[in-house]
Amino acid sequence: MTDLTAARRTFFGDIGFWADRTALHEAASLGRALQLKQLIDSGECVNTVTVDNITPLHDACIQGQPNCARLLLNAGAQVDVRTIHGSTPLCNACAAGNMECAKMLLDHGAKVNPSLTALTASPLHEACIRGNADLVRLLITNGALLEAYDIHFGNPLHTACAKGHVDCAQVLLNAGAKVNATKFHETALHHAARVEMVDMIELLVQFGGKVYARDNQEQKPIDYTEPGSPSEVCFKFYERARLSSDCRYAPKSTAAFQNRFTVQDGHQGSGGRRSTGHMSPHQKLPSL
């Protein structure tokens, strides 16, 4: 037992002592700030971890308990400790969608881009899974990588689209996320097609999403929609509009074609406009 309770330093950081779940963990998880303060004042180690490397700070953040998180941080809780699965307290705060905890952790120096593992996603991925656009914006402002790649979800834009969070996708695209980046040749439009969200499809096409992109199964986004569904109708509309516009402007130079079709994007270029090579869904389309 002596070996198990010895302090140690590992890949996960200086994580204190092995233990089962302690009174500190329970108080932090349940938001019992007064009890937690009493335990801290009595000398309990705030960096005590369970056998799977969960600290009281992890518990406070995953349960969205900012008062308890503040007490732990002020008492010296380590901000970037990782669980056995690689999650940091910031990952947990983002998974919970708790802005207050996330801001607090960032103010205490939490890494916005912890190294990814096979078992954990980045804080930005977690925020996109949760669907908290304000949290996505906060992380990007603090330097979150827009193209961080998770082996399960792809990049954050793939994640937002797969989960059907249009607001998060909008924030990512406005910040410069690559609309046609691929995961096993799947683009964000493939993910949007699967969740049958017309608003998401329109947004992605507006930012230059390629309706003819094929994945590693040679499937286009439209191939993942239900026959006769609004999503299929939407894709057919854009495919026909694209063919019509390609034919109409074929004699013109590529530069002229790109200058003809643009979308508003306040984050792109000095003029606030970005060429897409596609027609915006809000532009007047050729007759079909």
How would you sum up this structure, described in words?
The chain is mainly alpha-helical and 288 residues long. It folds into two domains: 1-110, Alpha Horseshoe (Serine Threonine Protein Phosphatase 5, Tetratricopeptide repeat); 121-250, Serine Threonine Protein Phosphatase 5, Tetratricopeptide repeat, CATH 1.25.40. 44% of the residues lie in helices and 3% in strands. Helix 4 runs parallel beside helix 6. The radius of gyration is 23 Å and the shape is elongated. The termini are far apart.
Descriptors:
single chain, 288 residues, mainly alpha, Serine Threonine Protein Phosphatase 5, Tetratricopeptide repeat, 2 domains, two-stranded antiparallel sheet, two-stranded antiparallel ribbon, disordered N terminus, ANK repeat, Ankyrin repeat and SOCS box protein 13
Summarize the structure.
This protein folds into two domains: 1-110, Serine Threonine Protein Phosphatase 5, Tetratricopeptide repeat (Alpha Horseshoe), CATH 1.25.40.20; 121-250, Serine Threonine Protein Phosphatase 5, Tetratricopeptide repeat (Alpha Horseshoe).
Topology overview:
Layout: E1 9-10, E2 13-14, H1 23-30, H2 33-41, H3 56-62, H4 66-74, H5 89-96, H6 99-107, H7 123-130, H8 133-141, H9 156-162, H10 166-174, H11 188-194, H12 198-206, H13 230-249, H14 254-260, E3 262-264, E4 273-275
Antiparallel strand pairs: 1-2, 3-4
